[in-house]
Each structure stands twice: as structure tokens, then as C-alpha cells.
From TrEMBL:
The lineage of its organism: Bacteria, Pseudomonadati, Bacteroidota, Chitinophagia, Chitinophagales. GO terms for molecular function: DNA-binding transcription factor activity; sequence-specific DNA binding. Transmembrane segments: none annotated. This is AraC family transcriptional regulator. It comes from Pinibacter aurantiacus. PANTHER family: ARAC-FAMILY TRANSCRIPTIONAL REGULATOR, TRANSCRIPTIONAL REGULATORY PROTEIN. It comes from the Bacteria. Keywords: DNA-binding. Residues 197-290 form the HTH araC/xylS-type domain.
Length: 292
């Protein structure tokens, strides 16, 4: 049974990547919210119920109808408290929006940008209007209309613009243990960079400074939090995760060492070889030959 579930998850993600978009009603397609590749897709949810939403180093306690904006570059998790939870959700890739040459402005909106506020409290009247937009997207994606993607992008923009008219919710508290929370979101973001699936999308976050910037934190604060919780430095964790991925690529792909080096963010294979040998005591080519 486990293998069948894994194939289903993979098939769903491949289909979603191909289309670049999916809208669904929460409850009718609950499995979708669990299996999609969060690192690749932006998300907008309109939900009614009680929940705790952990977003970067903040926690939002929400009750009622909310509009949530998820950025794939910012770690977040969702705890549903209500026994009933209803609403709609849509997922879309950055490439899907880029086709309309609008993704840059949307990513800089106060909802998707780093350090922004991703949650809005929605009134009953606003909920009815937004419900209509989500239903239109769900129906439109089933049609054969030649310009349905453009129409769906317009619906996404309409949701964004409606949200811009509203005042962002400030109903959140810092996590009770801020140090643990910072370490947690760092590891969440670290894991989201993997696996490396092709050489066209190389690793971009490779240093403690890169991760601190992505999380809108000072690098010293990030380093202190990670060291306090784990006893090891941020850099050590990043290096170990890169080595783990390097081993997997050497053992389970036919990519040459130069391609692997590039996919892991190294400008030159020599830099990768030196890095790999320093941490493992051997070089990539030798490891591959030993595993064959």
C-alpha cells in the first residue's frame, strides 16, 4: 500500500507541475493539500474554522473565515483545531504567473513577500464574493477553453487586488520559544531545497547568510538559535545536508560530477571536489566507483 501511495503523490505532483495550477474545494480534495510539493507552489486558501498557523517565526491563532497566502520560499505549517473545516484552495507555480509577466509585482505584495503578513480576516460578504471566484476557477480548469489559463490568472489577480483593499490581520503572537521556532523554520527551509531533481534548477541557498536573508533574520540570531538548539552551527547543518544530497546524486543518477557540482551550487567542479573530500575523506569519483 505504501508504494501505491508514493506513486500517487508523485503522479499528482508531476501533473501539477505540468499544468502549473490547481483549484479545489477543501474537504472534497483533502489529499491534495497533503501531497503537493510545497517547495514549488504558491498557495491561496479561503477557509472557515479555527486553526493555528505557524509562518516563519510567527504563530497566528485564527477563528472564523480567513484568506491565507503561502509562499513556497517561507516555511509554514497549519494546525486545524475545529472539528469542521471548509473552504477553497488554489496552488500555482511561479512559471504559471510569469506567463502573464505579473509574477514580480505579486511576489512583492504584502502577502507573498518576505516579512509580509500572509493572513486576512474575511467578513461574510467578502467570503461570498471570494467563494464565487474560487468556484469559477474550479469550473474553468475543467473546460477546453483555449485561453482558460489566462482567465485563471485574472482570477488570481482579482483575489490579490481584493485582498489589497483589506487590512492585514495582526492577530499573532511570537512563538512561546522563539529560539526553538527559529531553528525549526531553518530546518524546514533547508529540507525544502531538496531533493535536487534536475540541473536546470541548482541549489541557491548555500550559506547561513543565504538562509538568514530568506527568513528575514539577522545571521547572528539564526546562528545562535541553531547552535543553542542543536549544538552545531548553521553552516555545519547546511554542509551535511549538501553532502547527503551529493551522495544520493552520485549513487542514484548518471549525472557526471560536473553536473552534480553545478546542481549543488558550486561554480566549479574543483570547488565541489575539495568540499566533498574535506567532509567525507574521499572524492566524488571514488565514492561512485565504490558504490557501483
Amino acid at each position: 500500500m505504501a508504494k501505491q501511495t508514493e506513486r500517487s503523490v508523485s503522479a499528482y505532483n508531476n501533473e501539477l507541475k505540468l499544468k502549473g495550477f490547481n483549484a479545489f474545494q477543501i474537504g472534497q480534495d483533502c489529499n491534495t493539500t497533503r501531497v503537493y510539493s510545497r517547495k514549488d507552489f504558491y498557495k491561496i486558501c479561503l477557509t472557515t474554522g479555527k486553526s493555528l498557523i505557524h509562518y516563519a517565526d510567527r504563530t497566528f491563532e485564527m477563528d472564523g473565515t480567513i484568506l491565507f497566502f503561502g509562499n513556497p520560499h517561507i516555511p509554514y505549517s497549519w494546525e486545524t483545531i475545529s472539528t469542521t473545516y471548509t473552504g477553497y484552495s488554489c496552488l500555482f507555480s511561479e512559471d504559471f504567473l510569469q506567463l502573464a509577466n505579473r509574477s514580480e509585482s505579486l511576489q512583492q505584495s504584502p502577502f507573498f513577500k518576505l516579512g509580509g503578513t500572509p493572513i486576512l480576516t474575511i467578513s461574510e460578504e467578502q467570503r461570498d464574493f471570494l467563494n464565487t471566484i474560487f468556484r469559477k476557477m474550479i469550473e474553468e480548469q475543467k473546460t477546453d477553453y483555449a485561453y482558460k489559463d489566462e482567465l485563471i490568472r485574472n482570477y488570481i489577480n482579482l483575489i490579490i487586488h481584493e485582498a489589497l483593499k483589506l487590512r492585514p490581520s495582526e492577530n499573532f503572537d511570537k512563538h512561546s520559544n522563539a529560539v526553538s521556532r527559529v531553528a525549526s523554520v531553518f530546518f524546514d527551509l533547508l529540507e525544502r531545497q531538496f531533493p535536487i531533481e534536475n540541473t536546470d534548477r541548482p541549489l541557491t541557498l548555500r550559506s547561513a547568510q543565504d538562509y538568514a536573508k530568506a527568513l528575514s533574520l539577522h545571521v547572528n540570531y539564526l546562528n545562535r538559535a541553531v547552535k543553542e538548539v542543536t549544538g552545531k552551527s548553521t553552516t555545519a547543518h547546511i554542509s551535511e545536508r549538501i553532502i547527503t544530497e551529493a551522495r544520493a546524486l552520485l549513487q542514484h543518477t548518471d549525472w557526471n560530477v560536473a553536473d552534480i557540482a553545478y546542481s549543488l551550487g558550486f561554480e566549479y567542479p574543483t570547488y565541489f571536489n575539495n568540499f566533498f573530500k574535506r567532509l567525507t575523506g574521499t572524492n566524488p569519483k571514488t565514492l561512485r566507483e565504490q558504490e557501483v
